[in-house]
Amino acid sequence: MRNKLIIAAVVIVVVAVGASLVWSRHGGDDLAQLASQPGAKVSDQQVSELVSRISQFMVVPADENPSVVVLQNTSQLAQQQPFYADAKDGNILLLYSNRAIIYDAVANKLVNVGPIVRNDATPLPDANASASASVSPSATPGVPENVTVDVRNGTSKAGLAGAMASTLKKNTWITIGQVTDAKNSYTTTQIIDLSGGKNPNAVATLAALLKGQVQSSLPKGEASSTADILVIVGQ
Questions:
Q1: What is the CATH topology of the domain spanning 147-233?
Q2: How many Å separate Cα 82 from the centre of its chain?
Q3: Cβ(125)–Cβ(133) under 8 Å?
Q4: Whole-model pTM?
């Protein structure tokens, strides 16, 4: 009888430990929870944890913080770019200056890794393009150029432009210019390339980070800007 009790106790302990590990990976793991939140914002603490985990699989730049995106619409991305062929919504994209990494936080594995190469031929909408025209990173996203970015709030919610500017300036290649309100209201975030196509990789990277729509000219009614890129925050 005593032996049976001991065996029962061991089974209970094993089940409890197993349940704890499952909860740790799926329920109590902030990064795994992002899998159900495509497009979610990633905190600085989560970025640090991501870098720590990726470092277990490969060497990453020690002196550089990556730009991070929780992927969404991956089926569409995969049709356009082979780099995303094995990705799924909720996977996490990390962009370093020399490589792009897709990570599955639930399975704790790398989905894809690709070198980043400069591609100055990245297509951008011309002046006659639709306002809804957009671009996304190439299969191997180019190194973002150093750019000045103005940020405007295109909603009725106060403080969005300032919050966006604070987030963007964490990227070393971005210098924040003027932070103001837009003249019009916008349902989606707009990324306006005011450089005449001179910064295609910066524009493409911002499009991926912000899930925004790219334009090559100022929307009607908006004040002029001397920045390379104008970001108008939408709803």
A1: Alpha-Beta Plaits (3.30.70)
A2: 18
A3: yes
A4: 0.48
End-to-end alpha-carbon separation of the chain, Å?
66
Higher-confidence position of 124 and 30: 30
Residue 122: what pLDDT? 37
Please report which residue ranges of 55-94 form alpha helices under DSSP H. 74-80
The answer to whether the beta carbons of residues 210 and 190 sit under 8 Å apart is: no
Q: How many helical (H) and strand (E) elements, i.e. helices and strands, does the chain have?
A: 6, 9
Q: Is 90 exposed, middle or buried (0-12, 13-18, 19+ CB in 10 A)?
A: buried
Backbone angle region of 55, left / alpha / beta, with phi > 0 → left and psi within -120 to 50 → alpha: alpha
Confirm if 81 and 139 have CB atoms less than 8 A apart: yes
**Residue 9 CB coordination number (10 Å):** 10
Q: Where are the domains of the chain?
A: 37-115, 147-233
Token representation of residue 163: 């919050």
- Dist CA 231 CA 213 (whole Å): 10
Contacts of 94 by beta carbon, 8 Å cutoff, 6+ apart: 50, 51, 54, 66, 67, 68, 100, 101, 102, 103
Which token pair is 50?
């991501």
65 has pLDDT over 80: yes
Distance CA 128, CA 212 (A): 19
